[in-house]
Amino acid sequence: MSQISIILPTYNVEKYIARALESCINQTFKDIEIIIVDDCGSDKSVDIAKEYASKDDRIKIIHNEENLKLLRARYEGVKVAASPYIMFLDPDDYLELNACEECVKILDKQKVDLICFNYYECDDYKKEWNFFESAFYNNENFCYFLFSRYPKFSWNIFNKILKKELYLKAFNTISLQPNEKNTMAEDFLLVLHSLKFINAIGITKQYLYNYNISNENSSTREKKDLNKIKSYIHDLSFVSEKISNLTQNQTNKLHSLIFKIAIYDLNIHKIDLTYKYTNKNFFEKIFLKIQRKKIKIKKNIQIKNAKNILKEANVSHCF
């Protein structure tokens, strides 16, 4: 059985998917599974994937009956994965060739539930996005580590490997309705819902993922299509509401604080998109500015609370 399943939710990425697949099939660690999730795009992405699959039996292609968008498309890939661990690769990005090998080295030292690593932001050149230092944590100390990094945060799912069984548990706690789909900020949703299930975390300071910031069609970078922007604003509201539900009856004060700060980040991003890319009159824009300032103040108060908890716990020597 393969050790890691790499899942590529695929929708109109014909310009990039060959590079992504090359970075998978040429991994220095070979005991992997590569799952292409055809999310009903209109270009030749899946045809390109089929060519690679005909030459490498580690590649599996599954076809959605309709466009499910990113959150559900990833889930479809996880359901059929044969490996105990899951890695996600957006097909406009690509992996460092030693990515899986370095993660397996961590697993050889300690059986963890979650692995985190740094990544490069790629345009005309690579820029290091540094957040993690090599260490092992339990859940509590991992929360303290996150506090130590505020106001910087890492809610992306692409720079993480997660146990399949825990991903499925987290997904099921989101309680999606059949008609609920999501593309924007789905990383927040899955990472935060998985937090309570994770007991052991391994992190490395290595840069193992290449995040393409030049693809204008990416959900995180699209700024031209007003309908898409409105859809993304709706997604941010949806994710914020789902995370708000996590805070209800939350007994773990560390998790609760993380959720609150994440909600403030989402709401600030939503206001920024609304302000920049939707047709608002002068007074509405003034109102948005005031709302953003209020949320930023509330966020900073919670970050200060996190820093105080970190100081009282006296665990700064761990980082």
Structure description:
The chain is α/β, with parallel strands linked by helices and 319 residues long. 47% of the residues lie in helices and 18% in strands. Strands 1, 2, 3, 4, 5, 6, 7, 8, 9 and 10 form a ten-stranded mixed sheet that branches. A hairpin with a 3-residue loop joins strand 6 and strand 7 (126-129). The longest helix has 32 residues, at 282-313.
How would you briefly describe this protein structure?
The chain is an alpha/beta fold. The chain has helices at 17-25, 45-53, 69-80, 99-109, 139-149, 164-174, 186-194, 226-247, 253-277, 282-313, and strands at residues 4-10, 32-38, 59-63, 85-88, 94-95, 114-122, 126-129, 135-138, 160-163, 200-212.
Mind telling me the C-alpha Rg? Answer: 20 Å
Instruction: Name the average pLDDT.
Output: 92
Rounded to the nearest angstrom, the distance between the terminal CA atoms is 35 Å
What count of helical segments does DSSP give? 10
Number of strands: 10
Largest sheet report: 10 strands, mixed
Computed structural class: alpha/beta
Uncertain spans, ≥5 residues at pLDDT below 50? none
| Helix/strand order, N-terminal first | EHEHEHEEHEEEHEHHEHHH
Shape: globular
Beta-strand residue percentage: 15-25%
Helix content: 40-55%
